[in-house]
Amino acid sequence: MHKQPETMRQTAVANHSPSRGVKSARRIWWGRVVRAARSCIALLAATFVWAHAGLAEAQGFQRWFQVEMTIFSNESGADREREFWDAANAELSYPPDMVRLGRLTDLLFLDWLASEPATDPLAPELERLRDTGPFHAREASGFRFPDLQRDPFLELPATYSDFRQTNQAIERAGQYRVLYDTVWRQPVGEEGAETPVLVAGGGRYGALTELQGSVALYFNANRDRVIFSADLWLVEFGGATDGGEWSLPPLPEEFRENAGNSAAAAISRVFTMRQQRELRSGEFHYLDHPALGIVVQITPYDRPPSEPTENQP
Length: 313
Fold this sequence. Notes:
By secondary structure, the chain is of the alpha+beta class. It has two domains: about 5-55; about 60-115 and about 145-300, no CATH class. About 25% of the residues lie in helices and about 25% in strands. The chain is built from five helices and eight strands. Strands 2-1-8-7 form a four-stranded antiparallel beta sheet. It has a four-stranded antiparallel beta sheet with strand order 3-4-5-6, with no helix packed on it. The longest helix is centred in the N-terminal third of the chain and has 42 residues, at about 20-60. The radius of gyration is 33 Å and the shape is globular.
Protein backbone atom coordinates (compact mmCIF):
# COMPACT_ATOMS: atom_id res chain seq x y z
CA MET A 1 0.00 0.00 0.00
CA HIS A 2 1.20 3.41 -0.89
CA LYS A 3 1.72 5.59 2.14
CA GLN A 4 1.18 9.33 2.14
CA PRO A 5 4.22 11.35 3.03
CA GLU A 6 4.39 12.45 6.64
CA THR A 7 4.04 16.14 5.75
CA MET A 8 0.80 15.50 3.85
CA ARG A 9 -0.66 13.57 6.81
CA GLN A 10 0.25 16.40 9.13
CA THR A 11 -1.41 18.95 6.81
CA ALA A 12 -4.59 16.87 6.63
CA VAL A 13 -4.69 16.51 10.39
CA ALA A 14 -4.14 20.21 10.82
CA ASN A 15 -6.97 21.01 8.39
CA HIS A 16 -9.37 18.77 10.26
CA SER A 17 -8.22 19.47 13.76
CA PRO A 18 -10.80 19.91 16.55
CA SER A 19 -9.43 23.39 17.34
CA ARG A 20 -10.15 24.59 13.81
CA GLY A 21 -13.75 23.44 14.11
CA VAL A 22 -14.10 25.31 17.39
CA LYS A 23 -12.73 28.50 15.86
CA SER A 24 -15.17 28.25 12.93
CA ALA A 25 -18.07 27.75 15.31
CA ARG A 26 -16.99 30.76 17.32
CA ARG A 27 -16.85 32.94 14.19
CA ILE A 28 -20.32 31.81 13.14
CA TRP A 29 -21.67 32.45 16.63
CA TRP A 30 -20.04 35.89 16.80
CA GLY A 31 -21.38 36.82 13.38
CA ARG A 32 -24.90 35.96 14.51
CA VAL A 33 -24.43 38.05 17.65
CA VAL A 34 -23.23 41.04 15.60
CA ARG A 35 -26.15 40.72 13.16
CA ALA A 36 -28.61 40.44 16.04
CA ALA A 37 -27.06 43.50 17.72
CA ARG A 38 -27.30 45.50 14.49
CA SER A 39 -30.96 44.54 14.12
CA CYS A 40 -31.59 45.56 17.73
CA ILE A 41 -29.86 48.92 17.20
CA ALA A 42 -31.84 49.52 14.01
CA LEU A 43 -35.07 48.70 15.86
CA LEU A 44 -34.17 51.07 18.71
CA ALA A 45 -33.26 53.79 16.24
CA ALA A 46 -36.55 53.36 14.40
CA THR A 47 -38.43 53.44 17.70
CA PHE A 48 -36.60 56.65 18.64
CA VAL A 49 -37.48 58.27 15.32
CA TRP A 50 -41.13 57.20 15.58
CA ALA A 51 -41.33 58.54 19.13
CA HIS A 52 -39.99 61.93 18.08
CA ALA A 53 -42.27 61.97 15.04
CA GLY A 54 -45.22 61.30 17.32
CA LEU A 55 -44.08 64.09 19.65
CA ALA A 56 -43.78 66.49 16.70
CA GLU A 57 -47.29 65.56 15.60
CA ALA A 58 -48.58 66.10 19.13
CA GLN A 59 -46.96 69.54 19.24
CA GLY A 60 -48.25 70.39 15.77
CA PHE A 61 -46.45 70.50 12.43
CA GLN A 62 -44.82 73.89 11.90
CA ARG A 63 -42.15 75.55 9.80
CA TRP A 64 -41.03 79.15 10.04
CA PHE A 65 -41.15 81.59 7.13
CA GLN A 66 -40.42 85.23 6.52
CA VAL A 67 -43.39 86.77 4.74
CA GLU A 68 -43.44 89.97 2.72
CA MET A 69 -46.63 91.39 1.28
CA THR A 70 -47.74 94.51 -0.55
CA ILE A 71 -51.41 95.29 -1.25
CA PHE A 72 -52.26 98.06 -3.70
CA SER A 73 -55.39 99.50 -5.25
CA ASN A 74 -56.20 99.80 -8.93
CA GLU A 75 -57.39 103.39 -9.34
CA SER A 76 -58.79 102.81 -12.84
CA GLY A 77 -62.56 103.31 -12.79
CA ALA A 78 -62.94 101.27 -15.97
CA ASP A 79 -61.30 98.23 -14.36
CA ARG A 80 -63.42 98.55 -11.24
CA GLU A 81 -66.59 98.61 -13.33
CA ARG A 82 -65.78 95.24 -14.90
CA GLU A 83 -67.62 93.41 -12.15
CA PHE A 84 -70.86 94.06 -10.28
CA TRP A 85 -70.50 94.33 -6.52
CA ASP A 86 -73.70 93.46 -4.70
CA ALA A 87 -74.09 94.64 -1.12
CA ALA A 88 -76.70 91.98 -0.38
CA ASN A 89 -74.26 89.16 -1.17
CA ALA A 90 -71.21 90.66 0.53
CA GLU A 91 -70.70 88.63 3.69
CA LEU A 92 -67.82 90.38 5.41
CA SER A 93 -66.38 89.21 8.70
CA TYR A 94 -63.20 88.99 10.70
CA PRO A 95 -62.00 85.49 11.59
CA PRO A 96 -61.59 84.34 15.19
CA ASP A 97 -58.13 84.15 16.79
CA MET A 98 -56.90 86.99 14.58
CA VAL A 99 -53.69 88.83 15.50
CA ARG A 100 -52.30 92.24 14.65
CA LEU A 101 -48.65 92.46 13.71
CA GLY A 102 -46.64 93.96 16.54
CA ARG A 103 -44.96 97.26 15.75
CA LEU A 104 -41.69 98.37 17.28
CA THR A 105 -42.69 102.02 17.07
CA ASP A 106 -45.62 101.31 19.38
CA LEU A 107 -43.14 100.63 22.18
CA LEU A 108 -39.99 102.60 21.42
CA PHE A 109 -39.20 106.16 20.40
CA LEU A 110 -35.84 105.59 18.71
CA ASP A 111 -34.89 107.38 15.53
CA TRP A 112 -33.16 104.33 14.02
CA LEU A 113 -36.41 102.33 14.12
CA ALA A 114 -38.33 104.78 11.97
CA SER A 115 -38.42 103.76 8.31
CA GLU A 116 -39.03 107.37 7.24
CA PRO A 117 -38.43 110.69 8.99
CA ALA A 118 -41.44 112.02 10.83
CA THR A 119 -43.27 114.81 9.03
CA ASP A 120 -45.46 115.90 11.93
CA PRO A 121 -44.27 116.93 15.40
CA LEU A 122 -45.03 114.58 18.26
CA ALA A 123 -48.07 115.29 20.35
CA PRO A 124 -47.23 117.09 23.62
CA GLU A 125 -47.99 113.92 25.62
CA LEU A 126 -45.58 111.87 23.52
CA GLU A 127 -42.91 114.55 23.72
CA ARG A 128 -43.11 114.52 27.51
CA LEU A 129 -42.84 110.74 27.50
CA ARG A 130 -39.86 110.83 25.18
CA ASP A 131 -38.05 113.47 27.22
CA THR A 132 -38.63 111.75 30.55
CA GLY A 133 -35.65 109.47 30.08
CA PRO A 134 -35.12 105.87 31.17
CA PHE A 135 -36.73 104.48 34.29
CA HIS A 136 -35.12 102.17 36.81
CA ALA A 137 -35.85 98.50 36.20
CA ARG A 138 -38.78 97.13 38.17
CA GLU A 139 -39.07 93.52 39.19
CA ALA A 140 -41.82 91.41 37.64
CA SER A 141 -42.84 94.23 35.32
CA GLY A 142 -43.58 91.76 32.52
CA PHE A 143 -42.00 94.07 29.93
CA ARG A 144 -39.28 92.99 27.54
CA PHE A 145 -37.93 94.38 24.32
CA PRO A 146 -39.17 92.70 21.13
CA ASP A 147 -36.86 90.03 19.73
CA LEU A 148 -36.52 90.55 15.98
CA GLN A 149 -34.97 87.12 15.49
CA ARG A 150 -37.42 85.00 17.49
CA ASP A 151 -40.76 86.78 17.97
CA PRO A 152 -43.55 85.75 15.59
CA PHE A 153 -45.97 88.22 14.00
CA LEU A 154 -43.67 91.19 14.57
CA GLU A 155 -43.51 93.81 11.84
CA LEU A 156 -39.87 94.07 10.81
CA PRO A 157 -38.09 97.34 9.96
CA ALA A 158 -37.97 98.48 6.35
CA THR A 159 -34.34 97.34 6.05
CA TYR A 160 -35.64 93.74 5.96
CA SER A 161 -37.80 94.43 2.91
CA ASP A 162 -37.08 93.10 -0.59
CA PHE A 163 -40.07 94.93 -2.08
CA ARG A 164 -38.89 98.53 -1.81
CA GLN A 165 -38.15 98.85 -5.51
CA THR A 166 -41.38 97.00 -6.35
CA ASN A 167 -43.41 99.38 -4.21
CA GLN A 168 -41.73 102.39 -5.80
CA ALA A 169 -42.52 101.03 -9.27
CA ILE A 170 -46.18 100.53 -8.28
CA GLU A 171 -46.46 104.11 -7.06
CA ARG A 172 -44.72 105.52 -10.15
CA ALA A 173 -47.18 103.74 -12.44
CA GLY A 174 -49.84 106.30 -11.52
CA GLN A 175 -52.75 103.91 -11.93
CA TYR A 176 -51.95 102.12 -8.66
CA ARG A 177 -51.57 103.11 -5.02
CA VAL A 178 -49.87 101.14 -2.26
CA LEU A 179 -52.30 100.64 0.62
CA TYR A 180 -50.41 98.23 2.86
CA ASP A 181 -46.91 96.80 2.83
CA THR A 182 -45.12 94.87 5.54
CA VAL A 183 -42.71 92.04 6.29
CA TRP A 184 -42.87 89.65 9.25
CA ARG A 185 -41.95 86.14 10.40
CA GLN A 186 -44.23 83.40 11.64
CA PRO A 187 -44.61 79.64 12.06
CA VAL A 188 -46.83 78.01 9.42
CA GLY A 189 -48.77 74.86 10.25
CA GLU A 190 -51.55 72.78 8.77
CA GLU A 191 -54.97 73.96 7.65
CA GLY A 192 -57.22 74.55 10.61
CA ALA A 193 -54.31 75.68 12.80
CA GLU A 194 -53.53 78.90 10.91
CA THR A 195 -53.36 82.31 12.61
CA PRO A 196 -55.11 85.06 10.58
CA VAL A 197 -53.31 88.41 10.43
CA LEU A 198 -55.30 91.65 10.52
CA VAL A 199 -54.93 93.93 7.49
CA ALA A 200 -55.84 97.62 7.72
CA GLY A 201 -54.42 100.21 5.36
CA GLY A 202 -54.99 103.09 3.00
CA GLY A 203 -56.70 106.31 3.95
CA ARG A 204 -58.48 106.60 7.27
CA TYR A 205 -62.09 107.81 7.47
CA GLY A 206 -63.07 108.22 11.09
CA ALA A 207 -62.53 104.86 12.77
CA LEU A 208 -62.35 102.97 9.44
CA THR A 209 -59.68 102.50 6.81
CA GLU A 210 -60.04 101.95 3.08
CA LEU A 211 -58.52 98.47 3.16
CA GLN A 212 -59.68 95.96 5.75
CA GLY A 213 -59.70 92.20 6.26
CA SER A 214 -57.18 89.46 7.00
CA VAL A 215 -54.69 87.06 5.44
CA ALA A 216 -53.53 83.63 6.60
CA LEU A 217 -50.96 81.01 5.63
CA TYR A 218 -51.05 77.23 6.07
CA PHE A 219 -49.63 74.09 4.45
CA ASN A 220 -51.50 72.00 1.91
CA ALA A 221 -52.32 68.36 2.62
CA ASN A 222 -48.98 67.16 1.20
CA ARG A 223 -47.00 69.75 3.17
CA ASP A 224 -45.07 70.70 0.04
CA ARG A 225 -46.74 74.07 -0.62
CA VAL A 226 -47.89 76.94 1.54
CA ILE A 227 -51.39 78.23 0.87
CA PHE A 228 -51.84 82.01 1.05
CA SER A 229 -55.46 82.96 1.77
CA ALA A 230 -56.74 86.54 1.50
CA ASP A 231 -60.13 87.81 2.69
CA LEU A 232 -60.09 91.55 2.04
CA TRP A 233 -62.42 94.41 1.20
CA LEU A 234 -61.69 97.85 -0.24
CA VAL A 235 -64.13 100.60 0.69
CA GLU A 236 -65.02 103.66 -1.38
CA PHE A 237 -66.18 106.44 0.94
CA GLY A 238 -68.32 109.39 -0.06
CA GLY A 239 -69.78 110.17 -3.45
CA ALA A 240 -72.95 108.75 -4.94
CA THR A 241 -73.97 105.28 -3.82
CA ASP A 242 -74.82 102.49 -6.24
CA GLY A 243 -78.17 101.86 -4.63
CA GLY A 244 -76.95 99.20 -2.19
CA GLU A 245 -76.71 99.49 1.54
CA TRP A 246 -73.24 98.36 2.52
CA SER A 247 -72.62 97.03 5.99
CA LEU A 248 -69.08 96.63 7.31
CA PRO A 249 -68.25 94.28 10.17
CA PRO A 250 -67.10 96.03 13.35
CA LEU A 251 -63.42 95.73 14.09
CA PRO A 252 -62.88 93.61 17.22
CA GLU A 253 -62.48 95.86 20.23
CA GLU A 254 -58.96 94.70 21.03
CA PHE A 255 -57.75 96.04 17.66
CA ARG A 256 -59.43 99.42 17.76
CA GLU A 257 -57.21 102.45 17.88
CA ASN A 258 -57.96 105.96 19.02
CA ALA A 259 -58.93 107.52 15.72
CA GLY A 260 -60.56 110.67 17.03
CA ASN A 261 -63.94 111.11 15.40
CA SER A 262 -65.59 107.67 15.21
CA ALA A 263 -68.06 108.78 12.53
CA ALA A 264 -67.12 107.75 9.00
CA ALA A 265 -68.16 109.13 5.64
CA ALA A 266 -70.92 107.43 3.70
CA ILE A 267 -69.94 104.24 1.90
CA SER A 268 -70.49 104.27 -1.85
CA ARG A 269 -69.07 100.84 -2.79
CA VAL A 270 -67.17 97.91 -1.34
CA PHE A 271 -64.92 95.65 -3.41
CA THR A 272 -64.36 92.20 -1.92
CA MET A 273 -61.36 89.99 -2.65
CA ARG A 274 -61.28 86.35 -1.56
CA GLN A 275 -58.47 84.42 -3.15
CA GLN A 276 -56.08 81.58 -2.37
CA ARG A 277 -52.76 80.78 -3.96
CA GLU A 278 -50.20 78.01 -3.55
CA LEU A 279 -46.82 79.60 -2.93
CA ARG A 280 -43.35 78.36 -3.77
CA SER A 281 -40.80 79.63 -1.30
CA GLY A 282 -38.47 82.28 -2.66
CA GLU A 283 -40.73 83.12 -5.61
CA PHE A 284 -42.60 86.35 -6.32
CA HIS A 285 -46.38 85.78 -6.48
CA TYR A 286 -49.05 88.15 -7.79
CA LEU A 287 -52.80 87.93 -7.09
CA ASP A 288 -54.94 89.97 -9.47
CA HIS A 289 -58.32 91.62 -8.95
CA PRO A 290 -60.25 94.44 -10.69
CA ALA A 291 -59.81 96.79 -7.72
CA LEU A 292 -56.90 95.30 -5.77
CA GLY A 293 -53.58 93.59 -6.30
CA ILE A 294 -51.36 91.61 -3.95
CA VAL A 295 -47.71 90.72 -4.30
CA VAL A 296 -46.39 88.24 -1.75
CA GLN A 297 -43.25 86.23 -1.15
CA ILE A 298 -42.33 83.67 1.51
CA THR A 299 -38.80 82.58 2.44
CA PRO A 300 -37.89 79.73 4.81
CA TYR A 301 -36.50 81.07 8.07
CA ASP A 302 -34.30 79.27 10.59
CA ARG A 303 -35.40 80.62 13.93
CA PRO A 304 -32.55 80.73 16.46
CA PRO A 305 -32.94 78.77 19.70
CA SER A 306 -34.90 80.51 22.40
CA GLU A 307 -31.94 80.47 24.79
CA PRO A 308 -28.37 81.22 23.62
CA THR A 309 -25.83 78.45 24.08
CA GLU A 310 -22.78 78.79 26.30
CA ASN A 311 -20.52 79.28 23.28
CA GLN A 312 -22.54 82.24 22.04
CA PRO A 313 -21.58 85.70 23.26
